[in-house]
Amino acid sequence: MEYREISPDDWRKLLVGFFEQGSPYTGGADRQEQLVALVQAPSLGSHHSFEVNAQDLVEFCPRFGPMVLRHPDSLLDLVNQALVEAQERLLASESMKRALASGIATASVKRAATVRFTHLPSGGSEFCKANISSLRAQDVGGLLQLSGTVIRMGTVKMLEYERQYECPKCGHSFSVSADMEQGNALAEPQACPMAGDPARPCKARKFKLLGALS
User: Do residues 57 and 28 touch, judged by C-beta distance below 8 A?
Assistant: First the structure.
């Protein structure tokens, strides 16, 4: 099965289930702790990172988890959307409502949040390479983990590689990544990603910038 055969809604549902999975599942307690910390983080304007052990995702869903690592350009945006939905569901839970009502906690949905995958599956898998020389053409476009030794360093240069946008019409949030083949250019979005949604197509052309990553 190809990842395109799964609808965006089904992908989001699968990934929300992963974020909401708690103990005793592998990594579940850590994800729950991170999720609570994310919604309780005080800064609304800052960008937030959410670390995910990629091996936990593959264990959670051995059939579809590797697809996320093979096709990040197409699926990471859905992963980030699922993280936002998981935050919304957490805030709507009775336990969080009680904590907020009692003044024990303050919380909000962090829409400018990005999932960072760590610990890609090893043991001779396609995602872990021993060195630069082991990279092949078929690896282009996927997430990879490799080891190496830094032999030379230059001056630090700032590189903006991703921007987060929100559609003011339908509320959909999405990211635009820099095009390395075009000198890391970041093009302004021309259409809402939900334009192709058969249930509720969105025709918005202007979008709100939520934040930039550099």
Answer: no
Pairing state between β 173-177 and 162-166: antiparallel
29 within 8 A of 23, measured Cβ to Cβ: yes
What's the Cα-to-Cα distance from 75 to each of 37, 83, 90, 163, rounded to whole Å? 24, 13, 23, 16
Residues 6+ apart with CB under 8 A from 179: 185, 186, 187
- Token look-up 């991170």 returns 34
Tens digits of per-residue pLDDT, 57-106?
Answer: 999 999 999 999 999 988 999 999 999 999 999 999 888 888 777 776 67
Asked if residue 105 lies in contact with residue 96, where contact means CB atoms within 8 angstroms, the answer is yes
Tens-digit pLDDT profile for residues 107-119: 888 988 999 999 9
Amino acid at 204: A
Whole-structure pTM value: 0.67
